[in-house]
Design brief:
Layout lengths: L6 H6 L6 E5 L3 H7 L5 E4 L3 H4 L11 H14 L4 E5 L9 H15 L3 E3 L7 H9 L4 E6 L18 H17 L3 E5 L3 H10 L4 E4 L7 E4 L1 H4 L17 H18 L15
Parallel strand pairs: 1-2, 1-8, 2-3, 3-4, 4-5, 5-6, 6-7, 7-8
The structure holds 3-methyl-2-oxobutanoic acid.
């Protein structure tokens, strides 16, 4: 039985080497990514990337649980963190605890993530006090973005920059084991990252963060609805899928597939 990944081991990577994180929503993707990652995030981006919905606000608790279960079936050594979906936690610490407890009980994941700063600190503290590890998420918060409008990068004004510092400190004080920093201008993100007591994971933030995360389908060239500036495509699998489908079509039509080796024959007497 492989050893269950530990939050403390993840946190100890800060200052040792950069932390590698990607999203995963399915068992085969978890299997492929696990050896290369420190953390797999079952992000609510699943609503847009897999279901073709307009916003992450359409994700719900059942969706997150089903995808969390799929990822947990194939992960070995990466920490698995599951997003609390919009509407499942903001109202009160008690609501957050009920939703997070359901996710943890039904998936066996290692932690949950929620979006927000000072406003959510009491919710984070309640989960952490109840034994549920929490990853914070500040800056650009997709659960609050208005559908159909461009995501807005944060930290450009002094007020925003100072609020981001306050948010990060509030989350650390509440007990998060790490903070995702999304869509924050570089100097502000770098200064938060360098002063933060827990690992910071950047996405469109700063190379000074302790680690980086991207949506896997962006990295693989599998999501074509929109590609943010902070994405680097390390493959173009849409093209590979299209070429494979075209080859299959040609083989079915010209009769070269299936061959006799793909078929079942009566056993020899
Ligand atoms: O939902 C998600 O995929 C995320 C990451 C992009 C950080 O929150």
């Amino acid at each position: 039985m492989p050893k269950k990944p530990q939050i403390a081991d993840f946190m100890a990577l800060k200052g040792q080497r950069k932390i590698v994180c990607l999203t995963a929503y399915s068992a085969p993707m978890a299997h492929a990514l696990d050896p290369h990652c420190d953390m797999l995030l079952v992000g609510d981006s699943v609503a847009m990337v897999i279901y073709g919905m307009d916003t992450t606000q359409n994700a719900d608790l059942n969706m997150m649980i089903r995808h969390g279960q799929a990822v947990m079936r194939r992960r070995k050594s990466s920490l698995v963190v599951i997003d609390l979906p919009a509407g499942s936690y903001e109202n009160s610490p008690a609501q957050a605890l009920a939703s997070a407890s359901e996710i943890m009980a039904k998936t066996g994941a290692d932690a949950v993530k929620l979006e927000g700063g000072t406003d959510l600190a009491p919710h984070v503290k309640c989960l952490v006090d109840s034994g549920i590890p929490v990853l914070g998420h500040i800056g650009l918060l997709p659960q609050h973005a208005v559908a159909g409008t461009a995501f807005r990068i944060t930290g450009r004004s002094e007020e925003e920059a100072s609020q981001l510092h306050i948010d990060a400190n509030a989350l650390v004080d509440a007990g998060v084991f790490g903070i995702v920093m999304e869509g924050i201008i570089e100097p502000v993100a770098a200064s938060i990252a360098m002063g933060c007591a827990v690992p910071t994971i950047g996405i469109g933030a700063s190379a000074a963060c302790d680690g980086q995360i991207l949506v896997t389908e962006d990295v693989l060239g599998l999501y074509d609805a929109f590609t943010p500036k902070f994405v680097r495509k390390f493959a173009n699998l849409q093209d590979d899928i299209s070429a494979a489908a075209s080859g299959y079509r040609a083989a079915v039509i010209d009769g070269s597939f299936p061959t006799k080796d793909h078929l079942f024959w009566p056993k020899k007497p």
